[in-house]
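Notes, p. 3: input format for complexes.
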Amino acid sequence: MSINTNLWNRIRYSCWAPIYDLIAVPTRPMRRRSLALANLQPGERVLFVGAGTGLDLDFITAGPIVTATDLTPAMLEKLRRRAEQLNLAVGARVMDGHALEFADGSFDVVVLHFIVAVIPDPVRCIREAARVLRPGGRAVILDKFAPDDGPMPLWLRLLNPLAIVLATNVNRRLGSILAGSGLRVVHREAAALRGFFQIALAVKD
Ligand SMILES: C[S@@+](CC[C@H](N)C(=O)[O-])C[C@H]1O[C@@H](n2cnc3c(N)ncnc32)[C@H](O)[C@@H]1O
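Output follows (205 residues plus S-adenosylmethionine):
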């Protein structure tokens, strides 16, 4: 039986929810950078997929219309509280990132922070993100990725079985996940740990 399921994700992220914000403190500069690349404009419709506890909300300034979705109610509950504290109007909904309950072209920007390496089927998730973006819309992706080419580095192969159980897959390659998705990468950069953490900005043509 595979552990790579929505059920396991909901269980483990329900466990992480109370301490997630503490563990994720080092990701703050990466979030700030990714959202700067997203360049949110006032009034733009932005969707956060796998939004978690809403740590990204701290970096929203321009006044976009924010929708946040996540599979795990305990994570979203924290997000709702954070939004309230920030006095930010956020439409928060429990939703599976494999099957977004929005019409085609509903958003100007989709934010995928630390979801592509976590969700069971990242290709489906990215395709859903592309579907709900309007033509010309932007997506930012921030996560841990293996190099696009060459053999999987030994340390990532060794780390993956434990990482998968605890929180995330560390053997995913962004290039192959994005191939054929309808999203074109216009910028990609190393965010931390010599490019293990990466940020990509992509556009829907
Ligand atoms: C590593 S956390 C990232 C949370 C947030 N995006 C952040 O940057 O802090 C992964 C999140 O993905 C959510 N998740 C896992 N599987 C999902 C799915 N199928 N659909 C939507 N969210 C999912 C988890 O509940 C968890 O909140």
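The longest strand covers residues 133-144.
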